[in-house]
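Priority: low. Protein: Cytochrome c-552/4 domain-containing protein. Input follows.
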Amino acid sequence: MLMRIALSFILAGLGWALVACSPLPESHASSQKLQPTSSQQELLIVFSGNTLGELKPCGCAKEEDQGGIERRMGYLKSVVPEGHALLFVDLGDNFKEPTRQGRIKARYLMSAMARMGYDAVTLGDRDLLYGNEFLKKQEGLPWLTSNMRIKGMDPPRYRIQTYDNGLKVAVLAVADPDLFYVSGHSQITMQDPATAVRDLLPEIAQGGQPDVVVLLTHMERKKALKLVDIDGVDVVINGHIEDESDTIDMQAVRKGQKVFAQAAPLGQKMGELRVTVYGEKKTYEHRMVRLDSKIPDDAGMTALHDEYNQEIEALFFETLKAKRAKDRTQVYATESTCKTCHAGAHATWSDSRHAHAYATLKEVNKSFDPECLKCHTTGFEKPGGFISEIDTPELKNVQCEMCHGARLDHSRAPQGGFAEEARGACSQCHVPKHSPNFNYETYWPKIRH
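Result:
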C-alpha cells in the first residue's frame, strides 16, 4: 500500500493549466484563481485508466515509451501534496484479451494497483473479461459501482472521504449499460447511469452535504459529458477505450462551477485535477503527466514485474512441448534461400533493423515473451513458423516472408504476383503503440528493394 508520506508538493515547474470556464464544450478560457485564505480547502484528484494490460511499455519507439507500473508508482511517491487532500482513482478497462498471458498480466496489474493504494476503481466492460470469480480473488482493490450489481460481488455504490483539512468528498462510479450488454456479460444488472446518480445523491446528503461530489464514468466521451449537468455533481472523470490505437481528447472542460476530465490511453499519462474550494465556489486546475523516462522506476514494482517475466518465461517453455508435437511441415523458405535469387533485396534487408529484430529481444530479456515474439520473428504461432531459438533458429528476425508470406513453394517454382501483400503486412506490427510515427510512404524508402 502506497504510504502517503509528507513530501512537499512543489507547484512551481509543474505546468498547471487552468481548465475551461466557457459553456461546455465549445471553447476553453482561463478561470480566475481564488486568492489563498485560511478558509480555502484543496483537493488533488489523481486518475488513471484504459491501461489494457500494459504493465510496462515495450520500448520499441521512444515516442511511446510511456506508462507502466514502475513509473506509475514512482510518480505517486513524488506526488504527495502538502496542504490539501489526495483522491486517487482509476477509470477501468485494465484488462485486454482472454489469453493465458493476458490473465497472468491482469493478475499482476491488480496486485500492483492494490499496492498503490487507490481510493476507488471503476469497473469497465473489459474488467469482466475473466469473469466475476477472477475479480473476487483480487484483494485490496476498492471497486466502486453505483449503477451495477454483479453476481457474487457486493462493491459499495459510493464512498465518502473526509480529510484532515475538513474537506468532505463523495465519490460515485457509473458505466454505460450498452458497453456491457454488447460485451455479453450475463452476470450483471445495470441501472441507467443518470438515474442511479440522482437516486444516490439525496442518500449521500443525509450524512451532511459533501464539499465536492466526484462522478467517475466509464462510457463514450459524449455520453459522459452530459452527466456534468446533473445537479449536485461537481467533477466528472471519464474513461473508456475501444482500441489501443484510439485517439482520446484529454482536454478538460469547465462549465460554471463544474469540470469534466478524461483518462489517457494505456496508462501512459496520469491525470491531475486540483480542486480549490472556497465556500460555494470552486476552481480547477488540470494537467496530464507523461510517465516517461524522466519518472523514476519504483524498485518494488520492478521486482513485481520481474516476477511476471519469470511466470511468462515458464509459460513459454511449458507450451514448447505441445508446439513441438504438432505437425511441423516446412512452409517457410527462410532468408538464406531467398538471397539465392534476390541478392540485392537480401543485402538491403541485412542492413535493416528487421534483420536484427530478435537480437533486440535478447538484449532486454524478452525472447520468451509471446507478445514480443510475434513481431520479432517469422511466423510465430503460425503453421511451420518460429517456435524457439533452439527449435527454429532459421526463423529468427523479421525475414522476407513476414511481409511476403510463406514462400517455400515459390522457391521451388518461382512466380510473381505477391509483392502487394507486403504493404498490408506492415500494419500488423507497426501499430501506434509500437510505431506511432509509422507511415508507409516514408518508411518504405528506407528498405526499398
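The first strand starts at residue 17 and ends at 18. Residues 1-37 have pLDDT under 50 and may be disordered.
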